[in-house]
Amino acid sequence: MSPGTIAARILIGVIVGILVGLTGIGGGVVLLPVLISILGVPPIIAVGSDAVVNCVTKMGAGLIHWRRGNVRWQLVSALTLGSIPGAGLGLMFLTLLRASRGNGVNDFLKILIAVLLIIIPIGYLYVKPSSAIRNTFVATESIKDYCGIALIGFFVGVLVGITSIGSGTVTLMLLLVLYGYSPAVVVGSDVVHALLLTGFTSLIQARLGNVDFALVGYILIGSIPGGMLGAYITKSISATRLKQTLCAILVAFGVQMFWEGILHAK
User: Which residues contact 250 (CB under 8 A, 6 or more apart)?
Assistant: First the structure.
């Protein structure tokens, strides 16, 4: 691998880390289209490698949220109860699809990821959270809440198993909109849940041979300090305007990938 290629991968890691640190938008949503559209990584390898990057980058954040008391373990356990079986189902589907279609699985993934890149940023910008702010389960509704949140976890798990997208952004949106937990509780619990989920999917993806560990290493070399830098300069930049711009870019990536996927599939 040439020094220029290595430098490009590290630089992309820095840029992705800064954007995630600045906006809070999930690393999977930001990194995956860059890996596929700019670096030309095959979608199935991009999905596996992205899962590993997500897992590693969430370790530090999960520890910080736990120490600050932002993690609700009932919420984490409910999400995990649904997401691990969902991820297993998603990975099984991906494996069967690869066995039956060979490299055609990359065309399928490209189209599916493109659709998610269009839907998720739009939802992130325009979906409004519930007006009721809660910090924990309401005792009289705990069973109903637990089952509902487990269903959210299952849906997210399937998405993550197939595409590696959704462990952060999709879970965050659905919990804020449907259950109205305080943002600190949702973010803290979601980060810990996402760490467990991406840890599980990373192990399976690695066993399936879908992870480029050299690529993961270069991305992490850039993304970890990039994330710290992004968080540091957040106060000096309009986060709202930046999120709007980033979401517009992601939608544009999604439209481009969708069009390319459709043309290639033909």
Answer: 25, 29, 30, 33, 117, 120, 121
